[in-house]
Design goal:
Strands 2-3-1-4 form a four-stranded antiparallel sheet. The radius of gyration is 53 Å and the shape is rod-shaped. The chain has a domain of about 110 residues. The chain is of the alpha+beta class and about 400 residues long. The protein contains twelve helices and four strands; from the N terminus they run H-H-E-H-H-H-H-H-E-E-H-H-H-H-E-H.
């Protein structure tokens, strides 16, 4: 139990002290009420103009004005015959031929986004009609109010509705085509794939034609070399008045051998006659015959290997001309073989387009993202509203103070 003194002490501590005069009146004044009314109107105006109106406009535009856009997608790869390396590591180790296939993939992608592909779609697949459907909205339809009506404007619309991306890792090219009708998107995507296939075929035909043309040009050059070598050889024969100096040299050698044999026999007869009958009148005849044979042997040897007009020097030039002709003929045979090889190579397709996923008629529209766009506009509008109201409230408070 607390004592009487403790109770008295507690009562003194709990005794209420009188309130001092407040800096502001506790009862709202007319100015304060007017300030709160203006602030409330400002909040309402800002909320309506910065949040309600943009969100309502976004709902109307994205929900009712913008038309549905369908998207058809197809995927394909560009391959070379006998080469199937497509990943990044293999691309570092691949041969030159496979890198050419990669270059062709980029070339096909650029063609799909080119004016030539657009003109083909306009001429054969009704692209202009597909982009001007009655159900299309004013922003995405062609022609529209912010694009030129000629080919330049149509090409801008084409680039906006068509996309092609190449994946270096997988080697797959993805083609996406938009349209205001599902059938239009699918038809245009199929038309672009067919145009790309024709483009690849033209690349193949050009490479085949270039290969065969180059090989035929090499053959013609070798034929000219063979003709020139044969002409030089014929002129040499006509100038020197013999067909084959090698054969003539064999004849000369045989003649020298025969004369040497006659010389040996005559010399033996002469020695025998000198021993048997030194005074015989046949000695003079044999000596004269022996001298004539030796003189003829000397002439034949001079003809074979003597001065610059000898057969040996002519044989060297003749063999050079013959070797040149044989080399030209062999080069001609090699060139003919390269033509046959080029023709065999022309029978197979060097580069071809292989579809990974064919396009199909889409069941649902892919664009626009109505709910997402409306929520995005609403979120940005609310954020901007909060920023503006916070700034406006601070300004008013400072002004009131």
């Amino acid at each position: 139990m607390a004592s009487r003194q403790d109770l008295k002490k507690y009562s003194e501590l709990l005794e209420l002290t009188p309130l001092v005069e407040a800096a502001y009146p506790l009862v709202p004044t007319t100015a304060t009420l007017r300030w709160h009314r203006k602030t409330g109107k400002t909040y309402f105006f800002l909320f309506t103009s910065l949040f309600i109106v943009p969100t309502l406009l976004a709902t109307i535009v994205f929900g009712f004005v913008f038309a549905d856009r369908y998207e058809a997608e197809t995927r394909f790869v560009i391959r070379s015959s006998g080469r199937n390396a497509t990943n990044a590591l293999t691309n570092l180790l691949q041969s030159t031929g496979m890198s050419r296939a990669t270059d062709d993939a980029y070339a096909v992608r650029e063609f799909m986004l080119s004016r030539d592909a657009m003109r083909d779609l306009v001429a054969h697949y009704g692209m202009r009609e597909a982009f001007s459907r009655p159900q299309a909205d004013f922003f995405w339809r062609f022609p529209n109010f912010y694009m030129p009506r000629g080919e330049e404007g149509l090409y801008r619309e084409f680039r906006r509705m068509v996309s092609a991306t190449y994946d270096q890792t997988t080697g797959v090219t993805t083609l996406r085509v938009q349209g205001f009708e599902a059938a239009d998107a699918n038809r245009l995507a199929e038309g672009l794939i067919r145009s790309a296939e024709q483009f690849v075929n033209r690349l193949n035909e050009r490479s085949r034609r270039d290969a065969v043309t180059n090989a035929l040009g090499e053959v013609k050059q070798m034929e000219r070399r063979v003709a020139e070598a044969q002409s030089k050889l014929t002129s040499y024969r006509n100038r020197e008045r013999f067909v084959d100096p090698a054969q003539d040299s064999l004849i000369v050698i045989e003649s020298i051998a025969k004369l040497s044999l006659d010389s040996a026999e005559t010399s033996m007869q002469l020695r025998q006659l000198e021993r048997a009958a030194p005074g015989s009148p046949q000695l003079a005849t044999l000596k004269s015959r022996f001298s004539a044979i030796e003189a003829q042997i000397g002439l034949e040897r001079t003809r074979l290997a003597g001065d610059a007009n000898s057969l040996s020097s002519k044989i060297a030039e003749y063999e050079r001309l013959v070797l040149e002709r044989e080399f030209s003929e062999r080069a001609l045979m090699v060139a003919l073989g390269s033509v046959e090889l080029a023709r065999v190579e022309a029978q197979r397709k060097q580069v071809y387009l292989e579809r990974v996923a064919a396009s199909s008629k889409p069941d649902y529209p892919a664009y626009p993202y109505r709910v997402l766009l409306i929520l995005l506009v609403a979120g940005l509008s609310y954020f901007f509203y909060k920023v503006v109201t916070t700034f406006a409230l601070d300004v008013r408070r400072h002004g009131q103070a």
